[in-house]
């Protein structure tokens, strides 16, 4: 025994002298281990050993207990249980787990102060329950974009021609010389495909980045007793999240506390009815939307452990969304393509007929086809060359660069707009914004700063400016404090006695709370502890008020408190308190006096909020219905507060810019008519010429009560709509659209969603906007500033203008190339430009041209034109004038070179063909400058600011020199001397003065194509009249 004791003593000694470098948790485990070990060692010393039994298989229990020295990261509840709890929505299972409090305890969450929220705590929770992110489906690889580019039918035909040309060339001339024709077509095709695939791949990556930004929403959580905003991706299991109307539930969880919470689960279940969530049914599912009320929730599952996460991980973002402009361009491309096919087919027939009738000669002047004497290989090779030429004409004729130009300009604009505080959610909005004729804007936060401060307080008919006033009766102060502290969705947090108090909630709530706490010495926590809230009616934009039914714990009396728009609350009152606390009757004369006080504050651009109170009698209190319906009459007016929200600096200039650009600005606000009029005048929406009493300013109810005919008649004259509901906003949008306007609407609330969806362009607010509003919108204004709305309008016009520039540029090349090849094929039996040369021109036009013209930045002159509107033509008369003048010049100069070039310059046929090719390409380079300005005569204005344009022009010229001078066999060209280069440049440069002269020719407003349509309609009318006779 002594030996055993000695051994145990040695072990104890070794434990006691263990290293002291352990952390606090490990020290505690070490102490526990030592205590247990010592106890067992001493006990075993005094106990007799069990008698030995020979015939037994029972092994002796060990004389120690294994204790893990590493602290346990595990929680009392596992992930699987939590997932099943929300999935099954079983109240019984929840009760078996100890209810919501039991789950919170298992997740080590204090329901009042939240989780600790330090780095170790967050990491531990992420390790146990995962992060609030979901796996995204893999994005398309570059190879997939290459494959998509290969799917074009014309590319397939050209590849076939290139393969045949390569095979016959090698067979006839050997691999050393024979690969040039076919090989050069192959290289040209792959170059076109590579450029297309690279631009599409980069655009796809950009959309992915924007998608990540749009999904990164901010959420209110309580951690260590402090309410704070964090990214939705940072939420962990155990977090306490604050929810309000319009929020998206960020994870699966359980209802902790709140009032009137209704959730729209249609995104998950498909059911449109709202689900009420409370203590009896506390289950909240990720991805659903808060339709009404407010609450705090306990997060139980995050990320891939939620149904929403699993669902989102299987949905890939569709970046192939086709905008209306792209659809119109595809139609235009198709029409031009049909003309190109017809021309190519005629060229094919003419060339084949000329070849087989022996009217074509080779380079040595010998007939190419001599009936049966001609080898089959030679016939096939010639036919392949003719087919390749015809197919290449189709490639050049079809302006497939138009959709690419739209994609490039939209992608470029989206990136730039992010820098200008606008995040595009739907591509079509970029271009549609350029056509906007009317903008319906909110007031608060958009035209104003949303930095609210209480500047006036009226108690009875007496005004108080700032600070607590000793002349106010204490019980009135108490009632005002109750009305502020208990009837709010905001909160107050004081980290320490010396530190600054933090206020959270909506700007209005924060303004009232800060006034009550800092100026009226309100103790919010003390008030909340002294009362019990029985029922809450949450604020909504229709009623414009919120109410609370509460019981004082001290005397068990029940009271109703209302807060809301001053004139709304005034209508509910029959008495009012004066400063000394005496209740006075509120008759009609007194009401008029209070209305004048409200109007006076409103005229000073103040938002007026009223507080009212009523004590509920025991009989009324006994009725359970009282808990479901608050008293709305016979109230006593407590007081009025005036909240100042100054206009944003620069908003007046932005409004004037929009008005100068021909865009009407209408302000739609929930504020009263006097506040709305004052702000609208300050912002420049209402100008001295406007007749305020004659229909320029209306209230929502008045507009709602008009007949449909009256609304359509008066809607254009309305500049301000006050006391409007979201339904009134929707009604105005529908009216304006009926009248042919392209309407942009700003909105931030959940109830604005219908108007945002109905508008041509929905603009939601990034700071104050709810998630429902953002999802319903096309563009998110990240800084909530109207100046950013004006910037979006400028960018929209820029997108439209850039695309028009490119259309003019490309159609000029299409018309010129088609006419030249057709005339040359019919008259001379050959096309002047080879397949490789035409593919090179195609590359200059489609990709490099799109890059150069689609990346022009917005200019001031864009805001000097009237809006295009809904029916404006894509190709204007100005564009027809410019492109036809340039195309006719190019046709004239190139056909002259085709038929007289050898004589004029005294050169061989091969050099003349190079001159034609070089002049044609240089004409496009010079014409690219002309395309920069559709109307202005000075095409070089601001060119130094567009480095990309200058870079692309330089690259095009360098590559053209390489093609002509160094790639003789590849491009089928001959070297040119300095004089010939000078002649080519001189001929191409004529396009500059020509463009300047042409812009003096006036054009009619009526679209050019409408004349053709009118003639067709007239013809149809005559045919109909003849047939009727």
Automatic annotation (TrEMBL):
InterPro entries: ATPase_P-typ_cation-transptr_C, ATPase_P-typ_cation-transptr_N, ATPase_P-typ_cyto_dom_N, ATPase_P-typ_P_site, ATPase_P-typ_TM_dom_sf, ATPase_P-typ_transduc_dom_A_sf, ATPase_P-type_domA, HAD-like_sf. It is found in: Membrane. The chain crosses the membrane at residues 153-170, 182-201, 336-356, 379-412, 811-829, 835-855, 948-966, 978-998. Its main location: membrane. It is an enzyme of class 7 (translocase). It comes from the Eukaryota. GO terms for cellular component: plasma membrane. It catalyses: Ca(2+)(in) + ATP + H2O = Ca(2+)(out) + ADP + phosphate + H(+). CDD domains: P-type_ATPase_Ca_PMCA-like. Residues 94-170 form the Cation-transporting P-type ATPase N-terminal domain. It is a multi-pass membrane protein. Keywords: Acetylation, ATP-binding, Calcium, Calcium transport, Calmodulin-binding, Ion transport, Magnesium, Membrane, Metal-binding, Nucleotide-binding, Translocase, Transmembrane, Transmembrane helix, Transport. Its EC number is 7.2.2.10. Pfam families: Cation_ATPase, Cation_ATPase_C, Cation_ATPase_N, E1-E2_ATPase. One of its GO terms (molecular function) is calmodulin binding. Catalyzes the hydrolysis of ATP coupled with the transport of calcium. Belongs to the cation transport ATPase (P-type) (TC 3.A.3) family. Type IIB subfamily. This is Calcium-transporting ATPase. It comes from Morella rubra.
